[in-house]
Amino acid sequence: MATLWRLSALCGSREGRALFLRTPVVRPALVSAFLQDRPAQGWCGTQHIHLSPSHCSGSKAASLHWTGERVVSVLLLGLIPAAYLNPCSAMDYSLVATLTLHSHWGIGQVVTDYVHGDAVQKAAKTGLLVLSAFTFAGLCYFNYHDVGICKAVEALTF
Amino acid sequence: MAALLLRHVGRHCLRARLSPQLCIRNWSLPMAMSICHRGTGIALSAGVSLFGLSALLVPGSFESHLEFVKSLCLGPALIHTAKFALVFPLMYHTWNGIRHLMWDLGKGLTISQLHQSGVAVLVLTVLSSVGLAAM
Fold this sequence. Notes:
Structural class of chain B: mainly alpha
Distance between the termini of chain B: 39 Å
Largest sheet of chain B: none
Number of helices of chain A: 8
Mean pLDDT of chain B: 88
Distance between the termini of chain A: 46 Å
Structural class of chain A: mainly alpha
Oligomer: heterodimer
Strand content of chain A: under 5%
Shape of chain A: globular
Number of strands of chain A: 0
Order of helices and strands of chain A: HHHHHHHH
Number of strands of chain B: 0
Radius of gyration of chain A: 19 Å
Helix content of chain B: over 70%
């Protein structure tokens, strides 16, 4: 996906520029300003972040990813009080799945922002995927063979 | 003192040819809170990954590790402080996360609202962290 970004940006295509539409909303203020201040990198799209959506078809995948991130965030927000009120095995696994996905996507954004270069970014994303997979496996193992997340947090109130 | 620190940071910025965000004299609250949101997110992810990986790699159950910590007979002040240190980044990230979701809905985007919601998040973070650490 990062390659697609770069290709579109270098070609100056509208689709590429549309991807940056989400920059003002999603990125922290620091990074948005950071991107605007580096014009001489071949990223011809970065300066133009105020295009109207009606002119660009945009990438469905990027838009869906953004929406997916918000959905998972809201889900996680709802799961925390739910887990407190109704601790059970199903809650343990839902919490683990939502937490690892939210964390994976979050760190993915950090990698996209700070890791430049096609090969390096791909390597970083692969490393992140491996880490997230092991984290998910470890937490599932904890839920299955040990007390589980809900009981563990409860036990911490000593 | 702050001016000396900024000058040092500024020199580093210029040498590393970074954009001048870190060198400008006036940091703003939204800017600092944004960086902290990212920082707490990264820290929390690292903690969760560490927990997951140690469940796979470190021998012994959760209960045995908890018993070990209890057997150290650490003072209640130290335990309270440790709990506060654990729960503070989580609370900050949660409350600021809600603030981010509000922005995604298009609400509260004026500068004054930004500052007000920012202060509200900080107050809520401290209060909820103290409350949870006391449990």
